[in-house]
């Protein structure tokens, strides 16, 4: 019997400041896609434990793996000078409305 995946909400704050925030975004994207932890890990060729650690916000997951998982699950990450962050966050929030 297939496991039911319950979607979790995408974080409301678009600014990524912690491993927990990235993990929440990854989990939201995975669950919105209807993928179990095992299915998503298999799709990106990483261990289920590694994906679980990433979703839990554990900082021990390597940056390269985190970026690969984000891309595969459709989570976009942006970089910008700190002085521009406020304006960018505001534009993202307006676009979501």
Write structural notes for this entry.
With 97 residues, the protein is mainly alpha-helical. 54% of the residues lie in helices and 0% in strands. It is built from five helices and no strands. It has helices spanning 19-32, 37-43, 48-55, 63-73, 85-96.
Question: Brief overview, please?
Answer:
With 97 residues, the chain is mainly α. The chain is built from five helices and no strands.
Secondary structure topology:
Elements: H1 19-32, H2 37-43, H3 48-55, H4 63-73, H5 85-96
Helix pairs in contact: 1-4, 2-3
Looking at how many chains there are and whether they match, the oligomeric state comes to single chain
Low-confidence stretches: none
Shape: globular
The value of Rg in angstroms is 14 Å
| Counted beta strands | 0
Query: Major sheet: size, sense and barrel closure?
Result: none
The percent of residues in helical segments reads 40-55%
Kindly name the structural category: mainly alpha
The CA-CA distance between the termini, in Å, is 38 Å
> How many helical stretches?
5
SSE ordering = HHHHH
Q: Into which percentage range does the β-strand content fall? A: under 5%
Mean residue pLDDT: 94
């Amino acid at each position: 019997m297939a496991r039911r995946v319950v979607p979790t909400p995408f974080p409301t704050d678009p600014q990524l400041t912690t491993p927990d925030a990235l993990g929440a975004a990854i989990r939201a994207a995975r669950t919105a896609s209807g993928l179990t932890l095992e299915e998503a890990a298999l799709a990106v060729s990483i261990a289920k434990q590694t994906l679980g650690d990433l979703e839990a916000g554990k900082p021990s997951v390597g940056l390269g793996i985190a970026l690969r998982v984000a891309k595969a699950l459709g989570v976009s990450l942006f970089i910008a000078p700190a002085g521009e962050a406020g304006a960018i966050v505001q534009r993202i929030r307006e676009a979501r409305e």
